[in-house]
């Protein structure tokens, strides 16, 4: 059976695009010095920092601005600085800044690439002590050191190219896109567990009690309520499973 010229050309172009996407991702592989994990990353630390600084005002505005209390912000800054200056984070080259957001409804904390770390007052107000705050901020520093945003951006670009190649070659673009989304979902759960482990190590090295990170998980569990989404439908592991992994990390790093 002969393949028509137009279709043959499309197949060759599609194969070339897929091959390029694969080779480029292979060339981006490197070992993360903080996790020991081999990952594909396409952004330099300077680019990560630039993206974080550019997006920080946008994220702040989306959460109602900064919380208007200098003492509360000073506590966040103090704990953040202690976690950075006494741990592996200090030599990372990232520019860590810590922001207490005005948001009183959303119990959340997150980090942008390059070191911009945020915690909402809704979560901050439920923390019982400085060690729990260190647990939250340590976890978010872990996302930065783990280069998780960098990895997600690299993966997204890979799947865009793969989808383009499959679409051109054999109209399989939707299938490739679906596979890509599933992969990103799985990695997202792994990122959370990895950041929990890094957070435990950072807490111990900075002189905080890592057991308090378990208390943070209890707060998140209570906030989600009895009708929380099952783990397999969420990008985050269930708090109960995270607690078990945190206990393992404590046994691993605490001497």
From TrEMBL:
Gene Ontology process terms (BP): proteolysis involved in protein catabolic process
InterPro entries the UniProt entry points to: Mito/Outer_Membr_Metalloprot, Peptidase_M48
Domain of life: Bacteria
GO terms assigned for molecular function: metal ion binding; metalloendopeptidase activity
Name assigned to this protein: M48 family metalloprotease
EC numbers, comma separated: 3.4.24.-
Swiss-Prot/TrEMBL keywords: Hydrolase, Metal-binding, Metalloprotease, Protease, Zinc
Source organism: Tenacibaculum larymnensis
Cross-referenced PANTHER family: METALLOENDOPEPTIDASE OMA1 (PTHR22726), METALLOENDOPEPTIDASE OMA1, MITOCHONDRIAL (PTHR22726:SF1)
Peptidase M48 domain ranges (all copies): 74-249
Root EC class: hydrolase
Native organism taxonomy: Bacteria, Pseudomonadati, Bacteroidota, Flavobacteriia, Flavobacteriales
Cofactor needs: Zn(2+)
GO cellular component: membrane
Recorded family membership: Belongs to the peptidase M48 family.
Cofactor: how bound: Binds 1 zinc ion per subunit.
Pfam family, one: Peptidase_M48
Keyword Protease: yes
